[in-house]
Amino acid sequence: MEIQAVKDEASYRAALAEIDGLMTARLDTPEGDRLDVLVTLVQAYEARHHPIDPPDPIDAIRFRMEQGGLTVADMTPYIGPPHRVYEVLNRKRPLTLNMIRRLAAGLHIPADVLIGPYGAEAKAA
């Protein structure tokens, strides 16, 4: 069966269904190659038609805290004293460049996520 372009929702859903059926295909087989091509086509379609906005920086920090069971006290090496951590988490104080660097290095939150707009800054954008 010939691979069709993914150009609308119908062909997108058909490609997803076919991908689902090929998920157990081995690499370096015709089925594995077909899976690879279909996934590439679906990813391109999703990037154009279903883009995902980057996460809010504060939501990313909160998520990492929740994921790691981290408390405000655990955040002091990255953000500063507890009152400053609360100010940042409550969007009262912006992240500084040094905070971003420490969070990126210590908690492995991508810096490009941390520099994104949030709070009042996001509303103005």
UniProtKB/TrEMBL annotation:
Q: Name one GO biological process term.
A: regulation of DNA-templated transcription
* One Gene Ontology molecular-function label: core promoter sequence-specific DNA binding
Extract the SUPFAM superfamilies matched here: lambda repressor-like DNA-binding domains (SSF47413)
Question: InterPro entries from the xrefs?
Answer: Antitox_HigA, Lambda_DNA-bd_dom_sf
Q: Which PANTHER family match?
A: ANTITOXIN HIGA
- What's the name of the protein? Transcriptional regulator
Lineage per the UniProt record:
Bacteria, Pseudomonadati, Pseudomonadota, Betaproteobacteria, Burkholderiales
